[in-house]
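Anyone? Bumping this.
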Amino acid sequence: MVMPKVASATSMPGLLASSFACTNVTGDMDDLKARAFASATATPVNISLPPKDGADGAPKASEQSSINLKAEAASNNSGLRPRADASGKYSAIIEASKEILKQNDRGGYTIPAKGLYPYQWNWDSALVALGWASLDETRAWEELEKLLSAQWNDGMVPHIVFHQPSPTYFPGPEIWGSVESPRGSTGITQPPVAAISVRRLFESAHDKELALKTATELFPKLLAWHRWFYKARDPEGTGLVATLHPWESGMDNSPAWDEALERVPVAKLPPYERRDLGHVNSAMRPRKEEYDRYLTLVYLFRDADYDLKKLYNLSTFRVTDLCTNSILHRANLDLQWLARQIGRDDADQEIATWIARTQVAFNSLYDPAAQIYKCRDQLTGQMIDASTSAGFLPLFARVADTAQAAALAATLERWLKKVRYGVPSCDPTDARFEPLRYWRGPVWAIVNWMITDGLRAYGYDALAETVELHTLELVEQHGIYEYFDPVTGAGAGGSYFSWTAAMCLAWILRP
Ligand SMILES: O=C(O)[C@@H](CO)O[C@H]1O[C@H](CO)[C@@H](O)[C@H](O)[C@@H]1O
């Protein structure tokens, strides 16, 4: 096996180098502390329901609508066919997942997790809608309507919508200083999952009238958002859009961003206090050096009034992200499908042009030697030397040809032999792999859901089944966490996590 080039402490100067380069192989102090923390906090074998009373901004038990979970698990009002639950094998997961969505419901939108993430996040909401579909179709549509109601005039749909104030998250509305959305929002976006969810809800809808009405209303907003991507992030018409902030990628501290982020010169920042570290062990979160740069970019964009042309030209971080581009391409396929269902033939041709261009452009991101797709740094023009779980997402996008798909399946099989649970977010043989640190190693249910969808589309059903069963086992054994250690299975990050719950429902109750 060819070892990828590693960002070692000696190849990166100064303090930053030592903080970006990790030493999971020997196990540094951070890593050991995090493992001890994870095993102390992991929920033991029986999956638990979230506590109903909550500090943390959670609604009081008395404010919750009365819930008869057993009855709901039995009468599935969306009509989705229970997949493997005839034996009741997954009834505890179903029950807990539904309860999590209800407890994280803030009225038309779902927060990802109490305390840690108290607002509406973009791709979280789009994926969570798929979970809501198994409880309440109307509520599933509302999730998407609420997200798209925050759309900016230029078409962008922001990465966070600040519906109500919260002291538990930083940086909040006062730092972003954007007034475009009625309730305030960030000034960047996230991977555009929404059109994919609209198609799925539309296809599985029982209430066809509601589905047609809502999809027809949402369609122009989705089209405007996709147009924004090409105007704002691909002004040269390459077929691949740029990502200007690691938060836009959704895979915030991916090793793929290390070198590009290291080149962002840190501004003189006002003093700040990270609230995430009050909720989660610091060894499971991005490092300070990364946060300083995240904030530097936020202030840079704010000072440019979030003007889309200025941002593209002045951002000191600009990459071609596989996750965003795979999701955008898949979303275009689904948007085109929707255009045909609702009689928007006028949009069909425009979307077809995007699809054709991207289909070809994706080949420039395939690394035949590594047998995986890679991101590109747009400021250096170089392919980024990091194999991450995003490298499998071209399967979800359907842009891989059959030989590329076979190579990806083989790569995935090699990765699975190195860890107990797949899919790790970074190649487990890479020295940058850290099994508990957020997007640098842990398993994420949402990524697994997209990878399994892609594997099945290319006929790798058995491999898809393995990844799906790994995820359900993780949840069953450890709880519905934000992410999981691929080596030990320990749950990490936030607990009672909405999109993990939603993916379980989407898998177990899939139509
Ligand atoms: O760490 C954070 O504060 C936020 C910033 O957007 O990102 C994480 O959390 C968000 C909420 O779950 C996700 O959408 C992102 O992909 C990421 O996992």
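Late reply, but here is one note on the structure posted above: The longest strand covers residues 120-121.
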